[in-house]
Amino acid sequence: GGPQPLPGQEVSVKVLGALEDGGLVERDPRLIFVPGHGDVVQALELGVPTMQPGEISFFLAAFPYAYGRPGSRRYTNREPDVPPEAPLLFEVTLLEVRDGPDPQPLPPSVRLRLGSQRRERGNFHFARGDFTAALRSYRLSLRALDGPATAPPGPEEEEELREQRVKCLNNCAAAELKLGRAEEALAACEAALRISPDNGRALLRRGQLLAEQGRDAEAVLVLRRALELDPASKVIHTELSRLAKRQSPPSST
């Protein structure tokens, strides 16, 4: 009962997803997303807006509308991997429709789950070369991680929130670079380093971006710090060597 979701409204759905052999690869008792934002598979993006609250639907999705040609490799033991070119059968229950994304405070555990889910969706888009969609998913992940909470997180949850924010910001920087936006990529690196000053990935990328801007002295300082943290890194040694050659005056014959 009730109207179908309108553009911009947020939905909560219960989702089960199975392979042709019946193997369960998706199980989410409360998946929250805004149709059109691109942080769920296309079968759900297209199918859920046709539903009414309380309705249960089955969507048989060919692989382009599920996890695409490469499938999906999972980073937790919660669900198995999705094989390449796998069609999926989704059972979807539309639980709730409401205005605006994530307006209500959420427990830290739910913020972590939403953040991880949206970051993994961004990684899916990134692997397919859709860097605009990847960036959108990474920003949605950050919004979930930074959203209001029903209670202060415990020490372990706070640390995990910090780690997820840093991962997301590093991913944002990578997507911005793919889109040719060096200034935005540098800003994402610096935001990651404000949270975790010794994050090696952010230090390396920031050093490379500073070098590209001709800010060699700053780049050397950043890359040396990165080298202290990872002395065996060939990439950092190469970058520092390249900067040293660029700063050295040409020898006279």
TrEMBL record:
SMART domains for the chain: TPR
Molecular-function GO terms, alphabetical: peptidyl-prolyl cis-trans isomerase activity; protein folding chaperone
Catalytic reactions on record: [protein]-peptidylproline (omega=180) = [protein]-peptidylproline (omega=0)
Family annotation (InterPro entries): FKBP4/5/8-like, PPIase_dom_sf, PPIase_FKBP_dom, TPR-like_helical_dom_sf, TPR_rpt
Domain PPIase FKBP-type: 8-98
Keyword Isomerase among UniProt keywords: yes
Organism listed in the record: Anthoscopus minutus (Southern penduline-tit)
Key words, A-Z: Isomerase, Repeat, Rotamase, TPR repeat
GO biological process: negative regulation of apoptotic process
EC number(s) recorded for this UniProt protein: 5.2.1.8
Protein name: peptidylprolyl isomerase
Record Pfam families: FKBP_C, TPR_19
GO cellular component: cytosol; endomembrane system; membrane; mitochondrial envelope
PROSITE patterns, A to Z: FKBP_PPIASE, TPR
TPR repeats, residue ranges: 200-233
